Amino acid sequence: MSTLTAAAWVAAFLLVLAGAGKVVRPEAADTAVRTARLPSHVQLIRLLGAGEVAVGLTVVIVGGTLPAVVLAIAYGGFAVFAQRQRRIGADCGCFGTTSAPVTGMHVGMNVLLAVVTAGAALQPAPALPPMAVDAPLLGAVAAALVVVAATLLRLLLTAAAELTVAFELLAPKGAT
């Protein structure tokens, strides 16, 4: 397992978290898409979320070049959308449950994940289950680390962004 493969698995599971959020609570993403003046409906957002879950799980469970390429394209698209939302001061709606302000870190993270998953597509990325069968302890540790890393990235993109905005509101005028 390469570092790029592990990073692609983290990106894939982050996409699963985002997609699941949209399936369960599509309203924030629907609002974000409408703010971008794109056609939207909560059922369309749920479908998008289901597609994100499918792509993420395919990268981890099936592996291969095509799923990694699709994941890279998805993150490239997210980077473009996030930059647009950031420019107009709109929320992203990425994870469904709550909408978080889009920061430069958010845009940069999407760009980084697009590049990393594109790099993983060149290998091609293996699937996690065969590794877990061949080396159960390594597979269990890898799976746990993927879940933890993706969850931390989700927090970084949501809670950290909200804290940044809160601190900016509390800062005295003229303070840097």
Which tags fit this structure?
176 residues; 7 helices; globular; mainly alpha
Give the fraction of residues assigned to helices. Answer: over 70%
Strand content: under 5%
Query: Which regions contain 5 or more consecutive residues with pLDDT less than 50?
Result: none
Report the radius of gyration as a whole number of Å. 17 Å
Instruction: Supply the number of helical segments.
Output: 7
Topology:
Elements (H helix, E strand, L loop, with lengths): L2 H22 L2 H9 L6 H20 L3 H24 L15 H18 L6 H7 L1 H35 L6
Helix pairs in contact: 1-3, 1-5, 1-7, 3-4, 4-5, 6-7
Structural summary, described in words:
The protein is mainly α and 176 residues long. The chain has one domain. The chain is 77% helix and 0% strand. The chain has seven helices and no strands. Helix 4 (65-88) runs antiparallel to helix 5 (104-121). The longest helix is centred in the last third of the chain and has 35 residues, at 136-170. The mean pLDDT is 89.
Summarize the structure.
By secondary structure, the protein is mainly alpha-helical.
